[in-house]
Amino acid sequence: MGGRAAGPSRAPRLPREIPAGPAPDAASLREAALNHLARFASTESNLVRVLQRRIARWAQRAEREGQPPEEVTRRVAAAREMAAQAARDMVSAGAVDDAAFAAARARRLSRAGRSRRAVAAHLAAKGVASETAGMVLEESTTDELDAALAHLRRRRQGPFAPGAAQEGAADEAARLKALGALARAGFPRDIAERALDLSPEEATDRLLAARRD
């Protein structure tokens, strides 16, 4: 039996090139800032980076369209100044508050098992000034021991290891593995030791109490 003749092969459809459109101006950058803040909390520095990435995408499209490089460069420079101003306007309007952002983010990350060192690095990456981050971490109500316990619970180590309640103290190999994980996560040795010395009941009670605070 003869097979059915194959029809002509179709060329793969290429993605449609997005036109550059008008260069970003104060109005469009303000709108982009508001749209971003409607979805994400942000610091002033991080918001500027978001807007600058938008400007960079426009510049790439404009260059691919053959717009004069010197004109693209001029418009990019002007847009970057407007992006910084848009971010400052968001701060003045109260839509951006670095200290409030840092406090909320530090609390969430600590409760998720991140050490103070890891939280500080995260805040720095988000553009929070070191002075602001230090103040927030100093005033944080989240205990470093509680954060270490949350870390162990997520990894099912120490008091939260399967069978820990029946077996009592973890064997030395498991303890050393947990100590290494806590050290890599930025927890001090004394905090790690205290977390691993707690019984499953004590560890669970501490985390429940921390959630109620």
UniProtKB/TrEMBL annotation:
It is found in: Cytoplasm. Residues 1-24 are annotated as: Disordered. Residues 97-134 form the RecX second three-helical domain. It comes from the Bacteria. Belongs to the RecX family. Signal peptide: none annotated. This is Regulatory protein RecX. Keywords: Cytoplasm.
